[in-house]
From TrEMBL:
Membrane topology note: Lipid-anchor
Disordered: region residues: 26-64
Family affiliation: Belongs to the Pal lipoprotein family.
Organism, scientific name: Mesoterricola silvestris
Organism lineage: Bacteria, Pseudomonadati, Acidobacteriota, Holophagae, Holophagales
Domain OmpA-like: 83-197
Highest taxon, organism lineage: Bacteria
Pfam family, one: OmpA
Record-linked InterPro entries: Bact_OuterMem_StrucFunc, OMP_bac, OmpA-like, OmpA-like_sf, Pal, Pal_lipo_C
GO CC annotations on file: cell outer membrane
Protein name from the UniProt record: Peptidoglycan-associated lipoprotein
Skewed-composition ranges (Basic and acidic residues): 47-64
Gene name tied to this protein: pal
Length: 197
């Protein structure tokens, strides 16, 4: 019985000891997170982005200006080429009968084409050069070449071309186109040539 009485306090002591030993430690206090600055670019980064955007805009504007310049140059070159093609197609020689300065029926269509070209291109100015074959004196052929160039000029003026866009000159027999001694060669040399000025 005495043993039991001693055992009870011992049990109580042990129970309390175990209870104390098993008690969970209180959690450490958690500090609230400190406020941080909002994430974002620095002023230096903002300035760099601004400079980069300005540089990109400048390069884009330069590229657009260069493209526009090239397009304008290409358009101008095409315009000039079209003008030259039209001139080459229209400015054909006309020929004359021996010792004559009358416009032949066969050449009236060529003169109409020249008039149409000059109406289409108001900037065009044309020189009419009269030529002769090798027969006759220099003086006579110079005068005949002049009559031939004037005949073409008058015909073109009659078709509506302003006379101040047409100049005339005579080379007489000094600049033959071919060197043959037959009628076909002489006919080819009795001519008016039309050249852009």
């Amino acid at each position: 019985m005495r043993f039991v009485r001693n055992l009870i306090p011992l049990s109580v002591v042990l129970t309390l000891g175990i209870g104390v030993a098993c008690k969970k430690p209180a959690p450490a206090p958690v500090e609230p997170p400190k406020p941080t600055a909002p994430a974002g670019p620095t002023q230096e980064e903002i300035d760099a982005q601004k400079r980069a955007a300005e540089e990109a805009a400048r390069r884009k504007a330069e590229a657009e200006a260069e493209a526009a310049r090239k397009a304008a140059a290409a358009a101008e070159a095409e315009k000039a080429a079209a003008y030259q093609r039209a001139a080459d197609a229209a400015l054909k020689n006309i020929n004359f009968a021996f010792d004559k300065s009358d416009i032949r029926e066969a050449d009236k269509g060529k003169l109409q084409a020249i008039a149409d070209f000059m109406k289409a291109y108001p900037q065009a100015k044309v020189q009419i050069a009269g030529h002769c074959d090798e027969r006759g004196t220099v003086e006579y052929n110079l005068a005949l070449g002049e009559r031939r160039s004037h005949a073409a000029q008058a015909y073109l003026v009659g078709l509506g071309v302003a006379s101040d866009r047409l100049t005339t000159i005579s080379y007489g027999k000094e600049k033959p186109l071919v060197t043959g001694k037959d009628e076909a060669s002489w006919l080819e040399n009795r001519r008016d040539e039309f050249k852009l000025q």
